[in-house]
Design brief:
By secondary structure, this protein is of the alpha+beta class. It has helices at 3-6, 11-20, 46-61, 85-90, 92-101, 121-124, and strands at 67-72, 75-80, 106-109. A three-stranded mixed β-sheet has the order 1-2-3, covered by helices on one side. Helix 3 (46-61) runs antiparallel to helix 5. The longest helix has 16 residues, at 46-61.
Length: 129
């Protein structure tokens, strides 16, 4: 069922093998399921997932690699790597245009930056850094 895991490959092994084979995706950032961008209790629909995907695609087209667009109805909360926060502010017109083009009315930037599983924070009341 998981042949690479069964063969003892780690994520680093897969990246190294991919790079050696010349695959352009060898250093592609890990990508969690788009449904992880939607807060608990919010219906996950194809429309919501498409909106999130289009917003993230627009931001990647601007050169941001590691990111999450968190979906809160017509508001998008952007999580970027800490080093990219200043760049996003400097290019805010482009960032806002890319996210609005995906269908969001409001665009916010999470100053805590990108962090995995932060929607779980609301459940536990604890910080997830």
């Amino acid at each position: 069922m998981f042949p690479l895991v069964d063969a003892g490959f780690t994520k680093a092994d897969v990246r190294a093998a991919s790079r050696a084979l010349g695959l352009r995706t060898w250093d592609k950032p890990a990508a969690a399921c788009l449904a992880s961008r939607v807060p608990y209790g919010t219906p996950v629909t194809l429309g919501v997932l498409d909106t999130v995907a289009r917003a993230e695609s627009g931001l990647r087209a601007l050169g941001f690699r590691s990111l999450r667009v968190r979906h809160y109805g017509d508001l998008a909360r952007l999580e970027l790597e800490g080093d990219d926060l200043a760049e996003a502010v400097a290019r805010r017109d482009e960032v806002v245009a890319a996210v609005r083009a995906a269908g969001y009315a409001y665009v916010t930037l999470d100053l805590e930056g990108l962090r995995s599983g932060n929607l779980n924070q609301a459940l536990s009341g604890k910080e997830t850094r």
